[in-house]
Amino acid sequence: MKIGVLTSSRADYGIYLPLLDKLKNDAFFDLEIIAFGTHLSKFNGYTLNEIENDNYPKIHTISTLISNDDEQAIATSYALTAMKFADFWDKNQYDIVFCLGDRFEMSAAVQAGIPFGVKFAHIHGGETTLGAIDNIYRHQISIASKLHFSSSTIYSDKIKALTGSDKNIFTVGALSLDEMRNFIPIDKDTFYNKFSIKEDDFALITFHPETIAIKENCLYAEEMKIALEEISKEINLIITMPNADTQGTEYRKKLEELKSEKPDKILLLENFGKINYFSAMYYAKILIGNTSSGIIEAASFGKYVINVGKRQEGRAQSRNVLNAIFNADDIIEKTKIMLKKGNFSCENIYYREGAADKIIKTIKEL
C-alpha cells in the first residue's frame, strides 16, 4: 500500500513520529514523506534536516512559504502552496495520504488534492481553537478527508456533524502521546549541557500569535514580555520560538528584546525536536503560553500549565490547566499560583494507549 504523509512544520512532524516509525518498518507499506512549509525555511530552523536524518525511503520537498508573515503574505503562501500541490498531485498518486492538524499550509495542500480524488486521512480533526484562524483550516481539512482519526470521542462527534456522516471516523487518542509509558527523557546532565541550561528550575514557554486578533497582537506581545520579565525573577525561562503565523514576528521581536535584557535568565530556541522538547517538558517546573502541547501533552508529564489567551479556547482541558487572559498581571498571578504546586497526578483526557497501532490496523482492514 502506497502511503504519503504531509508534514509542513516541526510541530506536526513530532506528532507523526510514532506512526511514521511503524509505517517505515512495516513491509506492507510503501512510505513517502511530503515535506513543505516551514521545514524548508532557514528562518524557522530548516527542520528538513531532522526528517532526512530519520532515513525514510523517499522524501519529496516542496518550497511553499513566503518569508513575511502579514495577512497578504499568509494568503499568498496559501495560494502558492495550492498551486504547487496541483502539480504534485497530478504527478503522484497514493492509496492514502495522511494529513494532520490545522495549519494553513496543510489546508492548502489538501484543498489542491480534492479535484484529483486524493484519499486523505486526517489526524486530530474535530478540535476547536477559537483564538486562531487554524480552526477554519482544520474543519476544511476534515471535510476534504475520507478517513478520520480523532483524539477524543467529543471530537469524533464534531467530525460527524461537519461531514454529515458517521463512516470512517475512529477515536484513537492523541498520537503524540503514543508509547508514553515507555518514554525515557534524555539524561539530565546530558540534556542540560547540550543546551547550556543552568541547574536551577525553569519554566518552558511557547507563545504564538492569536491569528483572529490581528489588531491586538502587538499589545499581547508586549504584555507577554512584561509578564515573562517579572516571572524570570523567580525562575529561569526556556522559550521555543513562534510558528510562521500571521504577526509571529511581533512576538519574536519582544522575545529577542527580553533575551538581550536578561541573557542569564532567558534561553531562546528555534527548534527543539520532539525528544528534546519532551525532555524539556519532563524537567520543567511548569509550562506557560498558548500552544497545544500544554493542553494535549503536558498532563502526561505531570505538569501544570498556564494557558494564556484564546488561541486554544474550545479545546477540552485536563485538570492541570489554569487559564489566564493576555494581561501581564493575570499571567504573573496565575504563574505564582502554579509554582506553589507540585506535580500533577490526575489523568490526561487525551491519552489512549496504542494510537499508532490502531491507525495502522484500521487502514489495513479498510
What topology emerges from the helices and strands here?
Elements (H helix, E strand, L loop, with lengths): L1 E6 L2 H15 L5 E7 L11 H6 L5 E4 L8 H21 L4 E5 L3 H10 L6 E4 L10 H11 L2 E4 L2 H11 L5 E3 L16 H7 L7 E5 L10 H15 L4 E5 L7 H14 L4 E4 L4 H10 L2 E4 L2 H5 L8 E4 L12 E4 L3 H12 L15 H11 L1
Parallel strand pairs: 1-2, 1-4, 2-3, 4-5, 5-6, 6-7, 8-9, 8-11, 9-10, 11-12, 12-13
Helix pairs in contact: 1-13, 3-4, 4-5, 8-9, 8-12
- Uncertain runs: none
Instruction: Please write the string of helix (H) and strand (E) elements.
Output: EHEHEHEHEHEHEHEHEHEHEHEEHH
Approximate shape: globular
- Overall SS class: alpha/beta
What distance lies between the first and last C-alpha atoms, to the nearest angstrom? 11 Å
Count every helix, treating DSSP H or I runs of 4 or more residues as helices. 13
Mean pLDDT equals: 93
Number of domains: 2
Characterize the structure shown.
The chain is α/β, with parallel strands linked by helices and 366 residues long. It has two domains: 2-173 and 351-365, Glycogen Phosphorylase B (Rossmann fold), CATH 3.40.50; 182-339, Glycogen Phosphorylase B (Rossmann fold, 3-Layer(aba) Sandwich). Helices cover 40% and strands 16% of the residues. The chain contains 13 helices and 13 strands. It has helices at residues 10-24, 48-53, 71-91, 104-113, 134-144, 153-163, 188-194, 217-231, 248-261, 274-283, 292-296, 328-339, 355-365; strands at 2-7, 30-36, 59-62, 96-100, 120-123, 147-150, 169-171, 202-206, 236-240, 266-269, 286-289, 305-308, 321-324. The strands form two sheets. A seven-stranded parallel beta sheet has the order 3-2-1-4-5-6-7, with helices on both faces. Helix 4 (104-113) links the parallel strand 4 (96-100) and strand 5 (120-123). Helix 3 (71-91) packs parallel to helix 4 (104-113), helix 4 packs parallel to helix 5 (134-144) and helix 8 packs parallel to helix 9 (248-261).
